[in-house]
Specification:
single chain, alpha/beta, Spore Coat Polysaccharide Biosynthesis Protein SpsA, Chain A, nine-stranded mixed sheet, 10 helices, 20% strand, Glycosyltransferase family 2 protein
Amino acid sequence: MKYYIIIPAHNEEAFLADTLNSILRQSLRPQKVIVVNDNSSDGTETIINEFTTLSPIFSKLNTASSEIHMPGSKVVNAFNKGLAILDDNYDFMVKLDADIILPDNYFERIAYIFTGNPKVGIAGGFIYEKDAEGRWKLNHPMNKNHVRGAFKAYSKTCFKAIDGLKAAMGWDTIDELLAQYNDFEIFTDDSLHAKHLRPTGHSYNEKAKLLQGKAMYAMRYGFWITFIASAKMAWKVKKWKRFIDNFEGYYTARKEKEPFLVNEEQGKFIRNLRWKNIKRKLF
């Protein structure tokens, strides 16, 4: 199978070379890798240049966006700029973070998954991060059938059906909800252990605290699903202020009548799916 990778990179000189080397080690190599240098002020561009001379699969795209790392919008905007210069001659598309080390057979396995089951629209492995003692531990805070945004692979048919990625907080939840709305399945392979070199959200801006609640509004969750999801999130991180921030964001978005990310029919499907999952876990 043919596949393309797009890597948004903002000030990633500490990790980028490891990520690109892990791509070169793949048993099934990509046809093209677009590294989007998003307003970096460190040595990120130098590293990209080195790899473009090392292998023809690598290409660089420089872009200038905000220096503020806001969850969702910044990374997806960079991804979409990379997407704009690619053709449609691929079987699956990959959005990859610039601080991930993949096992050597990662994309061979992803291709096998897509080939074996055409109903699978999104596939991926699991994230491992170093603990305080330097041991690699599973860090997968969401449901096991969720593919982390750090390394998402989309079949071409699914990617087209969901109309790509939404430039908003929660994009890596919206994509899976819309994939299921379009009758695709999500597949996670627990044999694929990817190393994440930087903890999630390490460089996020404090202004982002309301964005999760705003995303829940934009996904048409409604009050009760927002309540339950926010409480679960706050409990997991042991910070009840997260619950308050989410609701402030939700009501701010509602008051300001911010645009929805899904239409009414999709919103109804999403709410029904959420309630189904909640009831399954309770009973």
